[in-house]
């Protein structure tokens, strides 16, 4: 068991989102979180990240807001996935003039994500889809056993989304992804957790569900 919540209250600030959440995430699972905006997906991703990180798990995160530094390049934002592996002086020098070995390490990820032409371009000059892929690249560069991602492919087309999801599955043993597209969730996940009004209303193997079974998550 990687993480478990047992009748727990979760939220942010003074706002309570989940009153009595019971949920477990096991190693090797590929979980898709589905539900309308405000159903609690982001809260659950954040809570999972804190719990796993506090337990010392090797976890990478793609937050919904990307958490990029707009003035810095795609290269530097991806490189930030490994900031904690070097000292402050090394990181400062790499900021001023990127080391050849670090560029060589980041470049294949940028190529894979279609960002090679933008590698040294400031993130603030990118499109929404390019920024999203930069945040994914940072998580890939971070690496680890677990990837938590909040709407990581919402700003790219369906073909790119499938390719990115395949790359995620190839790199991380365990995935928990908040997705906006039901069809993508059914294709890429082995377990679907459906949230509605801050409650878990679906928790089942993806192969046992159809799109019709999940339509109720978005009704009302």
UniProtKB/TrEMBL annotation:
Keywords: ATP-binding, Nucleotide-binding. This is ATP-binding cassette domain-containing protein. InterPro entries: AAA+_ATPase (IPR003593), ABC_transporter-like_ATP-bd (IPR003439), ABC_transpr_LolD-like (IPR015854), P-loop_NTPase (IPR027417). The keyword Transcription does not apply. It comes from the Bacteria. Residues 3-219 form the ABC transporter domain. It holds the Pfam family ABC_tran. One of its GO terms (molecular function) is ATP hydrolysis activity. GO terms for cellular component: plasma membrane.
């Amino acid at each position: 068991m990687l993480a478990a919540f047992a009748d727990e209250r979760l939220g942010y600030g003074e706002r309570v989102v989940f009153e009595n959440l019971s949920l477990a995430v096991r190693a090797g699972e590929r979980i898709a979180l589905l539900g309308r905006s405000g159903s609690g997906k982001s809260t659950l991703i954040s809570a999972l990240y804190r719990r796993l990180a506090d337990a010392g798990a090797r976890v990478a995160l793609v937050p919904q807001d990307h958490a990029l530094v707009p003035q810095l390049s795609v290269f530097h934002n991806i490189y930030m996935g490994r900031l904690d592996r070097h000292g402050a002086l090394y990181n400062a020098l790499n900021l001023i003039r990127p080391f050849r070995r670090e560029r060589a390490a980041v470049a294949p990820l940028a190529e894979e994500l279609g960002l090679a032409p933008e590698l040294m371009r400031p993130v603030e000059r990118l499109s929404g889809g390019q920024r999203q892929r930069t945040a994914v690249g940072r998580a890939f560069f971070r690496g680890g056993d677990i990837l938590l991602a909040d709407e990581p492919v919402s700003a790219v087309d369906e073909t790119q989304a499938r390719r990115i999801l395949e790359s995620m599955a190839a790199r991380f043993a365990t995935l928990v992804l908040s997705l906006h597209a039901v069809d993508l969730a059914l294709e890429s996940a082995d377990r679907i957790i459906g949230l509605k009004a801050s409650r878990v209303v679906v928790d089942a193997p993806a192969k046992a569900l159809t799109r019709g079974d999940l339509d109720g998550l978005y009704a009302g």
